[in-house]
Specification:
This protein is α/β, with parallel strands linked by helices. The protein contains twelve helices and 14 strands. This is ABC transporter ATP-binding protein.
């Protein structure tokens, strides 16, 4: 059965966001270097990059918060301008830094942000109640933000950004510094908004989140695109295979035997490199389906007793590291 999200994708071929040859300079520094971004209606689109890569600059240009030096930005086929209020009504923003009023209650905060887009009291009341129910803050509606936990505060931040039912929602690291339960609830909420038809542009420093919810992922660095595709497509771009760690205590005191084992493993077609680290063989393999079996079979043939064995296939963080030279979490 087709979901609302599937129907939206099929029915509307125009881009939700179309960025072409975008250039932004700060003096002599080139922040955006002829950057293209193409977000399809109804998808969850991940925009990733190290600090200083140009993500925030690109988003601010899309939202009309920054002027730019060249290129074109269109949202739902229209140019974003400071006075294009009809287009702004179709957009929601959930910033990384919680942006609510401490003097107002949960309900008052959500109502205030809704009032920026919706004038009618009856409709606004309905939307506010729906947003409160959506983020499950009903029992906290009379609380002021200072009384909320970090996770609940993030949910309030989301409610304020989505209360007017936007078609396009920008989520900028919405799960920073929240507990696992709140994090899962937030991700489920984003997926539900997407199923209801919202297009989502999502940034995060948590690779597992990106793999979990994003249809396509664009990695940028130094203001230009490094890679674009699904998580699996991006993994295939990087020539990374299985990494196997094998405890081999009998080789610790026998250097000649250790060298013979390492050379033998190194000659296997599936093995790229073999290292020794304090009683453990670290084997890096070529991409393949039977790497662990082949390595263990070789050790069995060599009569090498093995202890603990662990195997790790390439992660999306490995992909990011290979493409940009830095780990996203450590920026």
């Amino acid at each position: 059965m087709a979901t609302t999200n599937d129907t939206t994708k099929a029915a509307n071929g125009a881009a939700a966001i179309s960025v072409t040859d975008l250039v932004k300079r700060y003096g002599d520094a080139l922040a955006l270097d002829y950057l293209d971004i193409d977000v399809r209606p109804g998808e969850v689109y991940g925009l990733l990059g190290p600090n200083g890569s140009g993500k925030t600059t690109a988003i601010n240009c899309i939202l009309g918060l920054l002027t730019y030096d060249g290129g074109q930005v269109r949202v739902f086929g229209e140019e974003m301008t400071p006075t294009n209020y009809a287009l702004k009504r179709r957009i929601g923003i959930v910033p990384q830094d919680v942006a609510v009023f401490n003097e107002l209650t949960v309900q008052e905060n959500i109502d205030y942000f809704c009032s920026l887009y919706v004038r009618g009291n009856t409709e606004r009341k309905r939307l506010v109640n729906e947003a409160i129910d959506f983020v499950e803050l009903g029992e906290f509606r009379s609380y002021r933000p200072r009384r909320l936990s970090g996770g609940l505060l993030r949910r309030l931040n989301i409610a304020c950004g989505i209360v007017h039912k936007p078609e396009l929602i920008f989520f900028d690291e919405p799960t920073v510094a929240v507990d696992p339960q709140s994090r899962n609830r937030i991700l489920e909420g984003i997926q539900e908004l997407n199923r209801q038809g919202a297009t989502v542009l999502y940034t995060s420093h948590y690779m597992e989140e990106v793999e979990q919810i994003c249809d396509r992922i664009q990695i940028i660095d130094h203001g230009r695109q490094i890679a674009l595709g699904t998580a699996e497509e991006l993994k295939r771009m990087v020539d990374a295979g299985e990494r196997i760690s094998i405890e081999a205590p009998t080789l610790t005191g026998d250097e000649a035997a250790r060298e013979h084992v390492m050379q033998t493993l190194g000659r296997l077609a599936c093995v790229r490199s073999v290292d020794w680290d304090d009683g453990t063989l670290d084997v890096t393999c070529e991409p393949g389906e039977h790497d662990l079996i082949d390595v263990l079979q070789a050790l069995r043939t060599l009569d090498v007793p093995v202890g603990h064995v662990s195997s790790r296939t390439p992660t999306f963080n490995d992909v990011f590291l290979a493409l940009t030279g830095t780990a996203l979490r450590d920026n």
